[in-house]
Amino acid sequence: MNVHHLELFYYVATHGGVSAAARQMPYGIQQPAISAQILQLEDVLGVTLYQRRPFQLTREGQLLFDHIAPFFKGLGDVADRIRGGGETRLRIAAPEIVQREYLPELCARMQRRVKGFHFTLTDGRQHQIEQFVAAQEIDIGLSTLTDKPPPNVETRELLRLPMCLLVPAKSILKSAAQLWEKERIETPLIALTASDPLVREFQSGLRQHGVEWITSLEVGSLDTVARYVASGFGIGLSLQMPRVEPPAGVRMLPLEGFPSLAFGAMWIGRLTPLGEAFLEEAQGIAKGLK
Predict the structure, then answer these.
(1) Which of 30, 165, 236, 249 has its CA 20 to 30 A from that of 74?
(2) Are residues 133 and 172 in the same domain?
């Protein structure tokens, strides 16, 4: 048997599928390559190692996994002892805007603090990042936080982000309160999906104002919200992100009387020393943003 094929099978079995395994591999490899090499392993053994949908190890797959898991699971500890130090790799997940505006500085700080620091990065929205953390597919997620995170998921708030509306620069609106005076808001609302904490909190605030305003355009990111507003397709729901200015052609209207959202880190279990160092640096950056 090819040891590399066994390693790929270990990651697939551990993370419950090829796509999740591809995100967790310590080196770059695409999903089709993993699938092809697992098929080669099955051909050599003459058995099917797991059912694809839904994912489940077969009896033979479980037997093989139980035999190889202790070896591959212990490689990290052996590597640490050989290096003579602690772990230097961190698996991080964050939305695109956080990756662009804040993570470069944060990771640069970590590289100055921890010799040999390196990281992998996964894109995701809040609910996706919660799933990654719960499945232990990442070490730390950076996102908006909910009042009730998934079971066993720990959180640490870094700062609060006020809500805001984005309007075209030429809009006659001077404040968001002018909208609440109307019997019906006809301008399309551009926002993230209904399950996103930002949208849920905004709708809760609208109900307190006695206003009904349902999202007309659901988009995938806050950047996309701003782009659609700039193109004149409606009013956008967003967050006031420190250091992030609205694009040309867009004005920001604060949402007074609406709750702010907690932004912070989430993880599962006990943080490693590397994870603690990462959060210390994140807190230092967040303190400078307040």
Answers:
(1) 30
(2) no
What's the average model confidence in pLDDT over 210-228? Answer: 94
Same domain, 283 and 240: no
CA separation for the pair 14, 34 (Å, rounded):
14
Judged against a pLDDT cut of 70, whether residue 77 lies above it is answered with no
- Order across the sheet with 215-218: list the strands: 215-218, 189-191, 235-239, 163-168, 250-254
Q: Are residues 184 and 139 in the same domain?
A: no
Q: Which domain holds residue 272?
A: 86-160+262-289
- What DSSP string runs through 130-182? HHHHHTTS-SEEEEE--SSPPTTEEEEEEEEE-EEEEEETT-S---THHHHTS
Q: What mean pLDDT is predicted for residues 107-133?
A: 92
Mean pLDDT of 254-267: 94
Domain boundary residue, one of 15, 50, 73: 73
Residues 237 and 214 both lie in one domain: yes
CA distance 177 to 210: 12
222 backbone φψ class: left, alpha, beta (φ>0; ψ -120 to 50): alpha
Residue 176, pLDDT score: 94
For 88, the token pair is 């230097």
What is the residue-averaged pLDDT of the chain?
90
Distance CA 105, CA 8 (A): 33
Q: What pLDDT shows up at residue 61?
A: 94
- 48 in the same domain as 92: no
Does position 242 have pLDDT exceeding 60, yes or no? yes
Look at residue 81 and tell me if it is in a domain: no
Q: What pLDDT is stored for residue 97 in this prediction? A: 92
